[in-house]
Write a structure and sequence with these properties.
Blueprint (H helix, E strand, L loop, with lengths): L6 H16 L7 H10 L4 H8 L6 H13 L5 H9 L4 H12 L22 H16 L7 H10 L3 H8 L4 H9 L10
């Protein structure tokens, strides 16, 4: 599938690997794909990101993603649903971190060995790549570009899509920024 990626999309994926390495993460996640997209310049996706004001809100988005990692990857919707049945994630998190240390659910790195070799992509990150292919095919685009990766990040449920939506980047708003008002008619499933 990687051969169907444009040069910019390939750079985004390799940039995500770099973000994972810099974070000393064991694997490449959806978050790393988003951060790499936010780094990109001169593409249709970077125009949409700038038009939606995401570049200006990068720090707050990174903080929200860090908080989601701290909650063990639970989305705000997950947290609210659990609260609805009497489970207080904040209380559980405080107890777990009290016993095992701050950031334990986020996979905080202590004295870990230096990573050698390739970092695998999480199931969620692989899902984003697969969804970007489906979006490109649905739009009848020949290649998978950065814009398809951005749309996929908004379309796949999880903390990254939540943070994007909280910052005004839903599938519909990103699609409008990318393709104008007529973009919705070619939406992929």
């Amino acid at each position: 599938m990687f051969e169907r990626f444009t040069k910019g999309a390939r750079a985004t994926v390799t940039g995500a690997v770099t973000h994972a390495e810099q974070a000393q993460a064991d694997s490449v996640t959806e978050e790393h794909l988003l951060l790499s997209l936010l780094d990109r310049r001169g593409s249709r996706a970077s125009f949409a990101v700038a038009a939606l004001g995401l570049v200006d809100r990068r720090a707050s988005m990174e903080a929200a993603l860090a908080e989601a990692r701290r909650r063990g990857g639970l989305t705000k919707a997950d947290t609210e649903a659990l609260a609805g049945i009497g489970i207080d994630i904040t209380e559980i998190l405080a107890r777990v971190e009290g016993v095992h240390g701050e950031g334990v659910l986020a996979g905080a790195r202590g004295n870990r060995r230096r990573w050698s070799g390739r970092r695998p992509f999480t199931g969620g990150a692989k899902g984003i790549l697969e969804k970007s292919l489906r979006i490109a095919l649905g739009r009848r685009d020949r290649f998978i570009g950065e814009e398809h990766l951005l749309l996929a990040l908004t379309a796949c449920p999880g903390p990254v899509a939540d943070v994007l939506a909280e910052n005004g980047a839903t599938y519909a708003t990103v699609e409008r920024a990318l393709y104008g008002e007529g973009g919705e008619s070619r939406r992929a499933s």
